[in-house]
Amino acid sequence: MNIFTMARVRRAFSMLVLIAVGGALSNGPAAAQTEPTATTEATPAASETATTSDGAAAESPTPTPSPTPGRPIDIRFGVIESYEDPGAAGRLGVAWTRARFQWADVEPTGPDDWEPPLDDEALAAELAAGREVVGLLIGVPQWARDRRGLPRGLALPPDDPDNTWAVFVGDVVARYAGRIDRWIIWNEPDIDDRDAPGHTWDGTAAEFFQLQRTAYLAAKAANPKAVIHLAAFTYFWDPGYFAHFLDLAAADPDAAANNYYFDVATAHLYFQPNGVYNVLYAFRQVMDDRGLAHPLWLVETNAPPMNDPYWVVDNWTLAVDLNEQAAFIPQSIAAALAAGAERVAVYKLKDTAGDRAANPEPFGLIRWDESRRPAFDAYRVAIRLMAGTTAATRERWDGVGQVRLSQPGQTTTVLFTRLPDGQTARVAATADEAELIDMWGERETITAEAGVFTVELPGALCLQTIADYCMIGGTTYYLIQADDGRPPATVSRPTEESATTATPRPLATTAPSPTNEPTITPSPTTAPTSTPLPTLTATTMPSPRAATATPVAAAVAEQPPATPAAEATPVNAGAAGASGLASYSGLVVLGLGVALGLGLLGWGLAGRRAGK
Questions:
Q1: Right CATH number for 71-386 from 3.20.20.10, 3.20.20.190, 3.20.20.80, 3.30.110.30?
Q2: What residues form the membrane-spanning segments (predicted)?
Q3: What predicted TM-score, i.e. pTM, was given to this entire model?
Q4: Which of 67, 254, 463, 577 fits as disulfide partner to 319, beta carbons 3.0 to 4.6 Å?
Q5: What is the DSSP annotation of 243-270?
Q6: In which element (H, E) is residue 307 found?
Q7: Mean per-residue pLDDT over the chain, rounded
Q8: Residues near 578 by Cβ (< 8 Å), separated by ≥ 6?
Q9: How far does Cα 479 stand from its chain's mean position?
Q10: What ranges make up the beta strands (E) of 499-595?
């Protein structure tokens, strides 16, 4: 039985246990929960309620210090809808967010309406906290539609008052000038299936180009300092959509004079760290082939879990465990930086009251009851340990994922397995000692031998495989070593999955001015010379692992199945008795599920032996 056969058996067994847990949940107190109404910002104590992967409450950690208390430490890291919980966003350490301006909601009955997604007070609070707000313009209200559902007058010049889309864009951009100077035009227009949940655009690619062109010209006329982002493409619905858009732009005689009608390219990529790297690299190549050097952002990424005890997903897209979601966050970010992404954001900060109807899976780093999913803490650690990155290189991508981050005065190597069995990583040393920190913030000091650091990585849970590898790797580690000027030792490595992807790309390290958008070098260059700076804040960071009760350096696969956290709502004696009976029946169901799983596992192994 090879490792992937064993992984599939393991996965089948896990599914059976999850089904049993689901039965237990349906009989237990958690099943009585209803979707809450929208809540205001919680007190710090409530927001810091952490939970383990099995949903149990854990003791709150000391708030993590940052170089400037309460301020973001690196402009490149963001989260969508940070204004849903500003306090938690501050503790997370994100520096930017996105607000969705749905035209049909902002101006529901006509241009005299004004109902923005966040009021001036909320916007001012975001800006005061040091978070840049990026606006997303999308949707067409009924009063502004033509017979096909597109903005009425879209083919007219941008300065024509009958071009309803141009008027809306110009009004919004002018109204927020100086507060919101970045605007994304539309969302995932490449999803062409009208029955798909993410479908937003009924027009052709050529008509979308006209929408983007109109928005760009109208926005620049309203605010010359505005930075206009191209809509995020999913790639997987139509891999050639971005190239087709650029070819349509190239055919426009005024495109070159107007930066091809976008200042930044964006992408939305989920579930697969490998896909994050490959698609961003492909997008960069599409622009390189046409002589374009626009910055590239990963505006949405995540791997929503299927087994959260408070939101168990029946019809999940891909199998993801709570701790796999946590592992995905640093793996996706490292892959994005290595592919040349200037900024990255996780979708999204918090589950909200309408999410069960809008989203098939739980995307929030925080649940609606204010408790944190493990991914929150993994992202908080990742932000602090990846801050200040000036260049990123994907050094290895076979059984081990290995990404080197160049930082002032030091090098951080991100490490994780991509197989269900443990793997060994060897990292060339530039110092005698290094800190090894896991994705929960637990740290130890290790010593180099013969110029090499050797790290034993635990196997991945591997609920889902993609080709020959686990979709999401195991526990992520950060190896941090000082750059003392010595030449690194040569470390022999296995054959790479892709031999063309190991060249570093320089990355923006400061917040770009809206009037001076930094340029990403279209061809790979070497990392800039490092200058000694104080050690990053991450080296004094308290462990969020204590809040998530994850074993030190344990494989993600070692996490137990999720079980519900105890209810905080008081109950009377009668209810308590009923609850105890329900819990007992849940344990019976769980025991039956485990027994069934073990029986099937034994049957499968016996069958395989008999067949040999």
A1: 3.20.20.80
A2: 584-606
A3: 0.73
A4: 463
A5: HHHHHHHHTSTTTGGGGGG-SBEEEE--
A6: strand 307-308
A7: 77
A8: none
A9: 22
A10: 505-506
